[in-house]
Structure prediction request, 207 residues.
Amino acid sequence: MKLQDTIYKKRIADDFNQGKSLLHGLENSITIFGSARTDESDTYAKLAHQLSYNLAKNDINVITGGGDGIMQAANKGAYKANSDRSIGLGIDLPFEQSMNPYTTKNLTFNYFFSRKYMMVKYSQACVIFPGGFGTLDEMFEVLTLTQTGKMNGFKVFLVGYEYWKYLIKFIEKSLYKESMINKEDLKLITLTDDIKHIEEEIKNLLK
Prediction:
């Protein structure tokens, strides 16, 4: 049991130490979250690609989970614009590719919690595209950290109005209505499919 604990602690330490070594000093960065299952021809994948391309052209780093789908689309866009700005922080899973080929800085993590921490530690905003449980987990952790003041000034954008509108209604009609969150918490999220607006907001944030 002690050996297992030692291995576990070492893997955790490796995640954080290697992550900090890779990203130390990184500035002007945003994180993109989204499904690994999205096809390259999907509308949202195309939007992720275009947004990342535009941001990288403006010397803004794009950090993703390094996998397929939305993540690959985002990394590919950043790579085409400025390969030095495409970063992937992956995780080893039996059913998903751990790292797409469009990252120039990358690391594969042992644990989700350390990976999530590193994905936002050096970012000033995140853009969340349609995704499943993993994307929801990432989104609500970021919202919690922003709500509680652990990441002051951090911006959260949701892309996919039709996809997210029922979740937003749930937040408004249940969480807010039942006083589980405050009115100002509703302003933590910007829901829009206008990537030009997101691009301008991010550029203004990073000035």
